[in-house]
Amino acid sequence: MLELLQLLKSKIEKLHLGGGPDKIQKHKEKGKLTAWERVFTLLDPGKTYVEIGRFAGDDLYTEHGGCPNAGVAVVMGYISGRLCVVVSNDATVKAGAWFPITAKKTLRAQEVAMENNLPIIYLVDSAGVYLPMQEEIFPDKEHFGRVFRNNAKLSSMGIPQISAIMGSCVAGGAYLPIMSDYALIVEGTGSVFLAGSYLVKSSIGEVIDNETLGGAHTHCEISGVTDNKYPDDESCLTAIRHIVDKFGDRPKANFSRIDAIAPAHGADFIPSYLPTDRLKAYDMREIIKALVDAGSMEEYKTDYGKTIICSLARIDGWAVGIVANQREVVKAKKAGNANEMQMGGVIYSDSADKAARFIMNCNQQRIPLVFLQDVTGFMVGSRSEHGGIIKDGAKMVNAMANSVVPKFTFIAGNSYGAGNYAMCGKAYDPRLIYAWPTAQMAVMSGASAGKTLLQIDEATMKNKGINLDEEARKKRLEDIEQQYNEQLSPYYAAARLWVDGVIDPRETRSIISLGIEAANHNPDIPRYNVGVIQV
């Protein structure tokens, strides 16, 4: 576990270097702060913040030189005491150009702002769309243009947007700051135009420099496109803080909160207790005790459906409903006083039924939900099928998918197949979703997938008259499992934004607390309606 946490720490440190020390040096020679320096200058010092989209782009686009952290830093944190979302382009990564994952991460930032009614600040320093990949970022529904659609939607929702043009802002990207409520610009480094000087010359023959075409003086004194100009990054960021501290307060959802109590287990308990061996059993209740306020757990149906733990509790004073996979082997009572041994991490009919009921209760009572995943899937075999595992699983998925209270998901270990869905995977709109370094996410485990794929390969080759000997079978199985296991990595998931990042388990409690505080800013909770429930 210590090795996994050290790897995580080193990878995070590397992210803050963006395009590397040389690119940072050239960036600073222009008198500009780095993307992360801008973020930390803007945020209230000493206050908690949460990074969203950490490791997006990790090991992607290697043939193009890579795009670390998707070329943009995104955080949720406090500015002048107000919780906000900040999007800061990293111009040390391909001049801040937009790769497909950059658009996906920026859209995720806007989604967080919309869901939680949070002001969003854009620190713009971008060369626009990365042209060699324009077909993967330009025309589709979830591509570059969706950002400006969201600008308009955010405005219609009354959610404040502030943009600071701190570097290049060209072509279609120029609409992002100008569709914001406030558009600020830094003198000398900031520029905004639909077409730069070279394109203007080639298009209409006009010879003009970029500063005259779209610099700070032009847009603040002539066009009125931007509001005010500032001599440097620091003064521009100070102006943003002054604007935010004038925002009026809004109605809240009023989720229950009382004074916080420290957990029964200390912060270092989870890394010392959680096994890195995916086959080793452990008691998820002990993990929960390290997250919730001491003495606040009120478990639901303790002796029924034991492979899922459902419990009311408080985290940092906030009331929550916890749905967690139990990894211990448990003994389930059956009719006629018979006992059934149930495997930990597997969802059985009784546990699915219990979880569905609990989720519905939490929605009726406006209690946010926290999902702790370590799930290998639903139970299979004739006994489970005849017992109706599919309809019981459908009941749980229905109750969870239609949930109207905020949901927060953390992948502690396995996250396989339909278990990922039932335990509120990314497809089911958790407000935030993070993986621990011990997480693995796929349709099934590497060992199971390897054997299945090998059987398919053997059948295909047999049809061609080719029979594999034992040595060839072993080599083929090893190759399949190696490739599959690479895709199980939490960093593989984070690179593609299937999760919002990989975190140290010790960050979990503060992320949940900040997440519920953010959700509390949106009082619009619709009526809970699960539709048709399978019984």
Automatic annotation (TrEMBL):
Keywords: Ligase
InterPro entries: AcCoA_carboxyl_beta, ClpP/crotonase-like_dom_sf, COA_CT_C, COA_CT_N, MCCB/AccD1-like
Keyword 4Fe-4S in annotation: no
Every CoA carboxyltransferase C-terminal domain range: 271-518
Domain CoA carboxyltransferase N-terminal: 1-259
A Pfam family the protein falls into: Carboxyl_trans
Molecular function per GO: ligase activity
Broad class of enzyme this protein falls into: ligase
EC number(s) recorded for this UniProt protein: 6.-.-.-
Protein name, as recorded: Acyl-CoA carboxylase subunit beta
Organism expressing this protein natively: Sphingobacterium bambusae
